[in-house]
Every structure is written in structure tokens, then in C-alpha cells.
Protein: YtoQ family protein
Amino acid sequence: MGLTIYLSGEIHTDWRERVIEGAQGLDVTFSAPVTDHAASDDCGVAILGAEPDKFWHDRKGAQINAIRTRKLIAEADVVVVRFGDKYRQWNAAFDAGVAAALGKSLIVLQPPEHDHALKEIDAAALAVARSPEEVASVLRYVLTGALPAGA
Structure:
């Protein structure tokens, strides 16, 4: 049994690389949004033309990014959504809602101080992890039945 995993959420840390490293040797395929912040923000105007109003600038980019996001979430068996310490990550919350609505297995990765703000998302998740290594351990257990060393 293999899994396709979509890694959604904050782009300012190495959490994706740490999950992928921890999942070495597993039958998994990873996908993610475009994590180049400037490219993600500006793709709409770079491709479809400039917008004088920031609202329309952002909307063009969001719509083009949504083509990728919708497809990758739809194809995923598991969606991992990371809520980090920086910025308000409404796009991550939206991805979690889409995944839940599609019946995808959802793993949330967040620090404890976000527990109250994310309680509804956490309630829809099948696991709430505190570290990328815990996410990798969940994936390893799901695929192999193996517990982490020392557990």
C-alpha cells in the first residue's frame, strides 16, 4: 500500500524536508503548493497581466494557485497541514477544510499555542502532531505498523 501525501501550509521553515526525510524508505509520494513565496504571490500578474489594484493582483494569483491546490488535494490520500508561528495562514485553514470536506485523511502540524484557535480544524483531523518527525512516524505506522524506536 502506497500513499500520496499533500504537504500544505507555512513556507518559512524546513518542515516539509523534515517530513520527507523521516519518511525515507516508505512507499510515499509527496506533493505541495508552490513554495516560492514571490512566485506564488505574483503568478497571476506575471502570466495574465498587471493589475493596478492589489485585490485583483492577489486574486489572479490565488485562482491560478487554486488550480494546482485543488488537483493535488483531490489526488492525495493524506493531507498534512502545517500551521506555523509566523503570519495568519488562512490558506492553510482553507486547505484543511477542503481536505475534510473531501473525506481526506488529515494530519495537522501545529505548536500547542495554536490549539485553541485551531480547535475546529483539530477536531476534523485524524492526528494533531507537534513536529515533522511525529508526522513521519504517523506515516510509518500507517504503512508498516511499526512504532517509533523506544515507544
